[in-house]
Amino acid sequence: MSDYCISVENITKKYRLGQLDSAGDGLRHRLERGVRSLFTSPQTLFANNKAKESSEFLALQDVSFQVKTGEVLGIIGRNGAGKSTLLKILSRITPPTSGQIRVRGRIASLLEVGTGFHPELTGRENIFLNGAILGMSRAEVKSKFDEIVAFAEIEKFLDTPVKRYSSGMYVRLAFAVAAHLEPEILIIDEVLAVGDVQFQKKCLGRMNHVARTDGRTVLFVSHNMGAINTLCNKAVLLRSGQVQAIGPTGEIAMQYLATSGLSASEISLTNKVNKNPAITVIGGRLENKATGASEFAYGDDLAVMLKIQVNEPLTYGVEFFLKDGLGVPIGFCPSDIQNGLSFTSKPGVFIHHCTLPAIPLAEGRYSLDIMISKPLVTAHEEIESAFVFDVESTVFPGTVRRISQQNGYGAIVLKVTFDQPIPDTSSPIDEREIVRQATG
Questions:
Q1: Residue 186 belongs to what H/E stretch?
Q2: Rounded Cα distance, 94 and 308, in Å
Q3: Phi, psi dihedrals of residue 329, rounded to the nearest 5°
Q4: What DSSP element (H or E) covers 323?
Q5: Are 4-20+55-258 and 263-440 equal in CATH topology?
Q6: Are 108 and 186 in contact (CB under 8 A)?
Q7: Residue 255 neighbours by CB distance under 10 Å
């Protein structure tokens, strides 16, 4: 383990579901269960044991991987894949059912908003308390105190009990403490979603500094594939409590998105957030305008059909947000700004047809978010990843180069026109001097 600060070997975590899990393991609980069993029939005991076996849930199963010192590891997977359970085991909040973990170095964990904070203590007191929990001396904490307060932006509330803090203030202070007290290993769960956009950028910048400049190890869980791809040089993909893949971040992120199970043609309303019951999207389809199929290549027109139900008279616009395979926005298509077009409608069900023409997309997976809005005012409804589609291999005539997101070329293949080179006659060229320089 000379080059590794974390080694995870065949970790399994088993939980019992239902009331059986609430029974304690202390002496009193064991005596109670023993006395109760004297008055229980063998048939009932057998049935209870069978129910106990069936109620077991494997949150993690035979998970193994290693993390090198100074490495930034992303842990990704769908909800319920076991990401948070794994981090809690690594942070020694809960023990594994079986398996072994070797950790070399001091760990700081940020798994929930305000982890380790005492609500009755002030922000100042909690900074020193968290430092002590992490094994820092008072002098070490004091040397970093001003940086922590400045980063968290809580100067005015420093001597206020943290129970009066908002969730944003909580997470700012918690992250500032964890990131500035110089642990060898920093473990961060999806807590940055609580902060605003500006603070999220600030946190990502700090994590990048911790990893790249300070050379510390970072384990980062997030559903934001853009952040994972930017920060992490390696990723682990979890699925149903098992390691599905380990490798370079770009490849693992693409594999995760490719197995999302979303249809490339029919609209998905799973991630719909309706803010105005007066209007809602009830159906839709994405297809290749030229062929009518759900297969796309470089430069194809995308045809979108939306079925919208209007429940009371109102004016609205339709906006599309195009994202690449990592969830990074790469295009914005609003009906009301670009075309000066918004729709005034009476109650009923209406069908919209629109075309996104000749988008020069590289090979890879893409998604379209949809927003129904009151133009320039507010959103009526938002649908994340309403359509997910793939652009097939992009190889141009006369070449063999494959232009793909995964190869690091980016999502857009720009059309460039080159003229044939012409001699520059503005300054004479001394051919003898060129030969002399070339031969030394």
A1: strand 185-188
A2: 48
A3: -65, 135
A4: strand 314-323
A5: no
A6: yes
A7: 16
Please report the beta strands in 335-438, taking only residues with DSSP state E, as ranges in sequence order.
343-345, 348-356, 364-374, 378-391, 394-395, 402-403
Evaluate whether the domain defined by 4-20+55-258 bears CATH number 3.40.50.2020: no
Closest CA to 188 of 203, 198, 209: 203
pLDDT mean across residues, the chain? 79
What does the alpha-carbon distance between residue 188 and residue 216 come to, in Å, rounded to a whole number? 13
Give me 222's structure tokens: 């997030």
Kindly report the CATH number that applies to the domain delimited by 263-440. 2.70.50.60
At 177-234, the pLDDT tens digits run 877 877 788 888 866 555 566 777 777 777 777 777 777 888 988 877 767 777 788 9
CA–CA gap between residue 22 and residue 106 (Å, rounded): 32
CB neighbourhood size of 10 (10 A): 13
- Rounded to whole angstroms, the Cα distance separating 355 from 358 reads 9
Domain boundaries in the chain?
Answer: 4-20+55-258, 263-440
